[in-house]
Write a structure and sequence with these properties.
The complex is a heterodimer of chains A (111) and B (112). With 111 residues, chain A is an all-beta fold. In chain A, 0% of the residues lie in helices and 51% in strands. Chain B has no helices and 11 strands. Classes of the chains: A mainly beta (111), B mainly beta (112).
Chain lengths: 111, 112
């Protein structure tokens, strides 16, 4: 069964550094998302992407965040200058609409 | 009032028992309802997907939606230790590209 894959599974970075989280969505899906889950908290929506542009973003998704679909298969989330509070699990998801299928996440640790 | 509320548990049941989970929500625009299972440090895995009110059954899982009460349920029959996980409800207002709003999850422990 096709699945959403995410790399790396764990990323440790220093505060102020840039990180890029990578995702390969399911191939025939049209909608792509990033969510995050801070330890012990809810899964929170960050951004949705459709037709090569952002369709919706949350208040969390400020100017330090950006998304790209550089080559028609990969989908990336860039955090320009990481903060301690960016430490979380970041999940990529894709779908033809609803429901969404999630990857296993990248655990980002900012020190 | 939180948009989606879910009892965090833990809910502990003996193997073979029925697990009953539920969520309440406040946004009447929600029409699409999902249940996900999440193992520790893994991504949410889709279990059930329903539209509007009614029941849906898939193997040991039954999902119920009561839009008039803004209440959804998931039942797991003949529970197994491998069902021990956190169960997340999620919902959206539209079918195409709308973000999901999640509950906080209920942790379930099935004891052998």
């Amino acid at each position: 069964e096709p699945e959403v894959t995410q790399t790396p599974s764990h990323q440790v970075t220093q505060m102020g550094q840039e990180v890029i989280l990578r995702c390969v969505p399911i191939s025939n899906h049209l909608y792509f998302y990033w969510y995050r889950q801070i330890l012990g908290q809810k899964v929170e929506f960050l951004v949705s992407f459709y037709n090569n542009e952002i369709s919706e973003k949350s208040e969390i998704f400020d100017d330090q965040f950006s998304v790209e679909r550089p080559d028609g298969s990969n989908f990336t989330l860039k955090i320009r200058s990481t903060k301690l509070e960016d430490s979380a699990m970041y999940f990529c998801a894709s779908g033809k609409g609803t429901p969404l299928h999630f990857g296993n996440g990248t655990r980002l640790t900012v020190t | 009032q939180k948009e989606v509320e879910q009892d965090p548990g833990p809910l502990s049941v003996p193997e073979g028992a029925i697990v009953s989970l539920n969520c309440t929500y406040s946004n009447s625009a929600f029409q699409y309802f999902m249940w996900y299972r999440q193992y520790s440090r893994k991504g949410p895995e889709l279990l059930m997907y329903t539209y509007s009110s009614g029941n849906k059954e898939d193997g040991r899982f039954t999902a119920q939606v009561d839009k008039s009460s803004k209440y959804i349920s998931l039942f797991i029959r003949d529970s197994q230790p491998s069902d021990s996980a956190t169960y997340l409800c999620a919902m959206s207002a539209t079918a195409a590209g709308n973000k999901l709003t999640f509950g906080g999850g209920t942790r379930v422990l099935v004891k052998p």
